[in-house]
Amino acid sequence: MLDAINGVGGAAAEKYAGIIAENRAATRRTQLRVGLVVLACLFSLASVGLFDVDRLLSGIPACWKILTEMMPPDFSRWRDWLHPLVDTFFMSIAGTAIAVVLGLPLGLCAARTTAPHAAVYTAARWTLNLLRAIPELIMGIFLVAAVGFGALPGALALGLHSLGMVAKFFAEAFEHADPKPIEAAQASGATPMQVVIHALLPQVTPQLIDTILYRWEYNFRASTLLGIVGAGGIGFELMASLRILMYQEVAALMLIIFAGVTLVDFLGSLLRRAQLK
């Protein structure tokens, strides 16, 4: 009888200790979140000093003058802009394709659960950090100097910069995949490639597709900026109009770019819905 009572008392004590431990962990998580929010607020307040209110107010008349000079938009050269717009569209697709093709193996190497060795994991992570640290404009300038003007350096710049972000998202998706199907495939004698194809990729395919579509939409917007450094596309036409102060053409080109971004966003939404069916 005493042993039974002691056993019940011990179980209750263990349960009580577990509840206390869970409460302490929840308290620590709450404190961490509050600390992060406070830190973010402090940084936000510190950044307010970057804004010069007097300069902003004095710039309003100049902005209004430029806006009035942009009206009405001049679409008289729209035929000349069709080819650069198509170049921009395919530049974004090519850049995204480069990032996806290279991002899958690099993402596998950058995930703790799939990296073949710790050294490979570290090297892959450093590579991704380096690719994300270099803006696509800087890559575009370097590649334009290396291979010349046109859409090719733009596509390469978008692909290399996107690779750093795409592979990072891929790696995080691989790390958060359910390990049970992977362990079952390994226990059945599957090769590492078979494990990836049959146990890992089916789990993370929706996340990978979302990442690819998001990056494609981003690359279309970024490809317009690469025209500034001579990487072709509609951005090159926009920069040419800005240099000669043809603000009405600038307004027309901005509306065309807006329409292109809207189209790409619509196509991305269609592909997402098709994926869910």
TrEMBL record:
Its main location: membrane. Residues 85-268 form the ABC transmembrane type-1 domain. GO terms for molecular function: ABC-type phosphonate transporter activity. One of its GO terms (cellular component) is plasma membrane. The chain crosses the membrane at residues 32-51, 89-111, 141-160, 225-245, 251-271. NCBIfam families: PhnE (TIGR01097). Belongs to the binding-protein-dependent transport system permease family. This is Phosphate-import permease protein PhnE.
